[in-house]
Amino acid sequence: MENVLRPLLVLGGSLVITLLVGWLVDLLLRRADSRHHETPLWGLLRLCRPPLQVVLCTALLRASFDQLRIDVVRDNRDAIGQVLTLVLIGATAWLVIRVAATIVQSSYARYATSTRDPARVRRVRTQVTLIQRVVTAVVATVAVAAMLLTFPAMQSVGTSMLASAGVLGIVAGVAAQSTLGNLFAGFQIAFGDMVRLGDTVVVDGEWGTVEEITLTFLTVRTWDERRFTMPVSYFTSNPFENWSRGGVQMSGTVFFQLDHSAPVSAMRDKLRDILGECAAWDGRDWSLAVTDTSPTTMEVRAVVTAKDADDIWTVRCAVREQMIGWLRDHHPYALPRVVTSPAVLPPGDHWRELTGADHGRTPPNGHVPTPDKAPRTGRG
C-alpha cells in the first residue's frame, strides 16, 4: 500500500501545489490589474504563469522524486535527476525571458501613451526591442551553458576549454568579423538614434518603411509590399535618406512641361483651389513658378506640403491629375505641341540654288515650293 500512496502523494502533491500557486498568483495579478489601469504590467505578467508553474512543478519533483521508492526510479536515479535538472534550467530561462519581455513591453506602452512625439516613440520602441533581443540571447546562452555543465564529461573538459579560450577567441573573432560588426552596428543604430522602427527611408533608390530591426539585419518594407533585408552595418557605413529625421513634415514638387502660352496666373488660382479641396494637404505652404524654358516648352513647378511622406505622395498625384485635366478642358493651347510645318526657305537666287529649280532638278520632296507664298503651319 505504501508503494502506491507514496507516488500518489509525491506526484499529486506537486501537481496540486503547482496549480494552487498558479491560481493564487493569477488572482493577485488580476486584482492588481483592476486597481492600476495606468499600467499594463500586471495584466502582462499573467502571461508568465505557464513558465512559473513549470518551474515550480519541476523543482518540487526534483526535490522529492527520491521519496518515490520505486524500483524504476532507483535504477535510473541519475538519469531522472539529470532530465529534471535540464527541464528546470530551461523553464527558469523561459520564465526570466518572459518576465523581462513583460517589463520591457509595459515600459514601452506607458511611454507611448504619455508621449506625443512619434519620433521619440519610435526611438524608444527600437531601443526596447533590441534590449529585449539582447536579454533573450544572453539568457538563452547562459541556460545552454548551464545545461552543458550538468554533464560530468563537460565538467572534466572545462579546464582545457578555459586554457584554449584565448586561441578560440581570436579564431572566432576573425571568422565572425562580419557578424560581430553587424552586432555592434545594431547597438549603434539602437542607441545612436540613426534609424528607428517606422521611419521612412530611401535606400538604393527604393522608398520604404523600416519594419524590423534586429542585432544583425534590418528589414525595409517598400510601398509595393516588397521587403528589403540588409545587414545593419550598411546603415552605419553608407549614406541613406531618412525622411522621418527632424520631423515627418515634407514638401513635394510637381513639374509641368507646357507651351509658352500657358496661363501661369490662372494656374496659380487653380492650384489654390485644388489644394483647398485636398484633405492630404496640411495648409502650410504652396507655390507655383516658371523654373525653366526651352525652345519649345517651359517648365512650371508647383510646390506643396503635407504632414508625412504618404500624404505628400497623395497631394502630388492629386495636383498633377487635376491640373492636367483642367488645362486639357479649358486651356488646350497650353499643352505641349509639336510643330509640323516646313521651315521657311530664303527667297531669291539662293532659294533656287537650294531647290535646284534653275537646273531643272526636282527637289527631294517631289515639288518646288513657291517662295512668295507664306508657309502653312499646323499644330499636332
UniProtKB/TrEMBL annotation:
Bilayer-crossing regions: 6-29, 83-109, 130-151, 163-187
Pfam families for this protein: MS_channel_2nd
Give start-end positions of Basic and acidic residues composition bias: 349-361
Keyword Transmembrane appears in the UniProt entry = yes
Keywords for this protein: Membrane, Transmembrane, Transmembrane helix
Q: Does the keyword Oxidoreductase apply?
A: no
- GO terms (BP aspect): transmembrane transport
Q: Where are the annotated segments for Disordered? A: 349-380
Q: Which GO terms describe its cellular component?
A: membrane
Q: Which residues form the Mechanosensitive ion channel MscS domain?
A: 179-245
Q: Where in the cell is it found?
A: Membrane
Instruction: Write down what this protein is called.
Output: Mechanosensitive ion channel family protein
